[in-house]
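Can't attach files on this board, so I'm pasting raw text. These are the components:
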Amino acid sequence: MGDFDRQAAAALYGGADAGDWFSGARRASRAAWLVSDWPGRKTEEWKYTSLDALESGSWLRVPPHASGGVDHRIAGLEADYLVFRNGRFDAEASRVEPVSGLQIHRLADAPEHLRERFGSIASGTANPFAALAACWTEDAVLVHLEEGTIAPRPLCVVHLGDDAAAGCAWAQRLLLVAGARSELTLVEHFPGGAAAFVTGLTEIDLQPGAQLRHIRLQLDAEEAVHIGGVHVDLRDASAYRGFVLATGSRLKRLDVRLRHRGPGADAALDAVYLARRSQLVDLHTTVEHESPHCTTREICRGIVDDEARAVFNGRILIRPGAQKTSADLSNRNLLLSDRAEVDTKPELEIYADDVKCSHGATVSRIDEKSLYYLQSRGIAREEAEVLLAFGFVNALFAGVELAPVQALMDAGLREWFGSRAPEALT
Amino acid sequence: MSEQIHELIRKDYEAGFVTAIESETIPPGLSEDVVRVISSKKGEPEWLLDWRLKAFRAWRGMPEPGWAHVNFPPVDFEAVSYYSAPKSLQDGPKSLEDVDPELLKTYEKLGIPLHERARLAGVAVDAVFDSVSVVTTFKGKLAEAGVVFCPISEAVHTHPELVRKYLGSVVPQRDNFYAALNSAVFSDGSFVYIPKGVRCPMELSTYFRINEAKTGQFERTLIIADEGSHVSYLEGCTAPMRDENQLHAAVVELVALKGARIKYSTVQNWYPGDKDGKGGIYNFVTKRGVCHDDAHISWTQVETGSAITWKYPSVVLRGDNSVGEFYSVALTNNCQQADTGTKMIHLGRNTRSTIVSKGISAGRSSNAYRGLVRINPGAEGARNHTQCDSLLIGDASAAHTFPYIECRNSSAVVEHEATTSKVSEDQLFLCRQRGLDAEKAVSMIVNGFCREVFKELPMEFAVEAGKLLEVSLEGSVG
Amino acid sequence: MDHGHMLSIRNLGARIGEKQILKGIDLEIKPGEVHAIMGPNGSGKSTLGYVLSGREGYEVTGGEVSFRGKDLLAMQTEERAREGLFLAFQYPVEIPGVSNMEFLKAAVDASRAHRGLEAFDAVRFMKLARETCTRVNLAQDFLKRGVNEGFSGGEKKRNEILQMMLLEPSLAVLDETDSGLDIDALQVVAAGVNSMRSPDRSFIVVTHYQRLLDFIVPDVVHVLAGGRIVRSGGRELALELEEKGYAWIEREVV
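---
Top answer:
Structure tokens for the assembled complex are below.
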């Protein structure tokens, strides 16, 4: 196993001594990062996830500045766009139409109430990379949707990386505070591009009655390393509907943590991960029910090909007093190759009795009966396999209501299956 | 069965008495000398002493496992006595006529009469009292079939080649902290050998009893089912009620050779401690079987006792077409903690495993299922199905499910399902509206919840199970 | 005490949490009578059955109920059942793993023990249960299956009637037993009930529709609205309701 130089990493961005309002937090994070235990096979949360791709590469460079001149939009998606290039905000490429009640700030000019929330939603996570992301934070957007504001368009945050940023490392940060009874669709788009190491934190605070549609398209470059986190606090009667598509990258780890912190909150999460070649994708989800009368429904599906490996860990934690909870998790995995591997661990940890919880996990290859059925209708076996694998994840894509996003995902899926993809019928 | 479960959740711990008998107990503490003393008391050959010493040295360098979902103060391994035997048994087990009547009474009281013409007429019993075997019944009848059923301390002398070949072959000395400890100081336990093609003519069973205070029990069981043979084996366990915690660290090894079939059933009713969690047995057990081609190992356990249970009866499916099964009911009440489950390791082609786990948590107890299903690359066509259900009774209890699934073969099919629910108000109301009282209603619902597992218990045992199963869910029904 | 009555309800009030559902019910039922209780949704029809059978969460706020001369409200749920009060549920709950037979035997044994009768021996009870199964048109393998486990809506309702037949209650409360039943199933259920009618057994038939009353002909019809019995009459009242709907009653009451 190689070495990841933690001292050098801590010193990569000198922001801890920058003297801005965030310096104190950077210093604390740097200290936490330096004393954290390096994840290994004996670390339960990293048991199946080798950091080889990170350790064997050399990533510790600050990327060059770049701005403007690229098309960052999702074709056909009418949205406000916030664009990051090589980890820095690109004001020139960003386009936001003013909406009353929607305030967008950069790190430096964030108002006090957002400064307080920034970093607090992700606090308490044992993941050392969350500390690294905080330590590296130079730039970020902090979004505040005021009470009762219904955003007329989706907000799309795009993270671009240039070829020149290959071998570089940076942090991605986003904070969204959605006020009481506000509504928004948030799209986080990582279109790939640079073989860089990105460590990120997206924090979302849903105030009572807020409703968020959150779509995260993590279409990383094939050789990239991405260690990200999505942390959502749900207050009374708020609703979170999340969708994650994860492809690309040699090593990808995404921690999604949803916390029900007020009665009546409702969370739904759909996730699709695809891994091929020698890629490793690791999706860790944690749903914490701290309040009564909350519901969670989670469906995660993965396809693993070649020598790739997929790791899934889905934890549902019902804290004492979180009565009348309903939580359900399903994880299904398709193995397309004999050399591929899936390690899955759905977990239930329950400290309240009046709850209904369930989880299920499967690992298999494509169902023989379905294959036979398609073959009996004259479809070649190989084509039938692709059709069925395609359908396995496509079923979840259908839940994303934005047609341009669906089209983008469909194209991505076709690209993934390459020449084996079925003909597009639309 | 329903009546028995009713008993199970109603009664106080009835096996909690102490037998007044003179015992020889070596002073507490663990050292190479203690290992030598145990070995010499059993008149063991040199190789076995060396084997024990090797394990002891390994154990000294091993950390105690901390990953299980249980909490308890550190065990002082120096405060435990590692060998205790009734004086009357100093010269080893004798025929039934020679056994101290006090001991016979003890087993009578526990519902395990040792006279061959008594109620358990179809079951051969090996009765282990603290560190030694009291008596083994039906040896003659079993010998006619070629079946060897005797204390392992005896088998060391009578079948050294088998013991030497298989001891530690399934659970290596260094497998884990408690297995290493057991390998160093193991006392008695049962040895079973079923010859090729023989269907064991009766159920075999071992009844474990801890009696002496401040002692641990470290039994070792080795079952070898030769090609094409069948055996059904049962074990039961009880201990007196004492305020201090007592340690039980057993190792069970099963070897199912080609086409053999082993059914291993356990009713574990070690003293669980009192309502406030005082006392009770720490039950840290390593049980594992290896299946060769076409072999079949089935574990059925009903776990109602012990203050702490740490136990994962496992099957290594080494041979092609072999089958592993695990059926478990784990009931915790008051302050009991259980972290139990299984491992199914699929190595051979077309191997199949089934896991059915039913956890019931009441009082302030904590009940965790922890399981591993591993499909290795060579396990072409492997299949696993796991069903894990938890039932909660009372809002201070906890239920957890930690299934690990590792799949490295694309032709495998692995399915895991888990649910958690409580005894619903609607179900209770329906039962009470039909005239059943709340406790009867709960016992009936709990019984229904466990049915899939209970039906796996052998008939002969099911009759006795009710007596062995008595644990109190008292006070948990509001 | 009035031994001439099966059930005597005086000014019964009940609430769920903070919500007052029953606001002063008065009802007298004599042995052998069939009373129908009709009313719009949310009028408290099901609540009445639950309160009579002592369901937790239904708090009696006032009034008295005498059942065969005894103070019903002082008894536990199971005592009421053993005294001969039976509630056929609108939505019978499933109890996985507990066989119907086991459940029925336990229930019948408990009631018989209460009355000082010996428990049936298993063989005799099995025979009785099988015969009763036939009477409600359920296949005998239903006895082996878990209580209501995987039963269709109609099968669950027939299972309720089966239980009623075996328990032989003095007073049966049928809570919307007709809901979700097709006409054939409805006739089976009604035939079962009618076969149980006798001079010393009474019924409360709770229903939203008068259709059931074509098959189970009531002696008295009550209309429940807003937590009170707002009108009582003969069979013709049910027909009038069918014709005019509940809005008419509600208007009159206000």
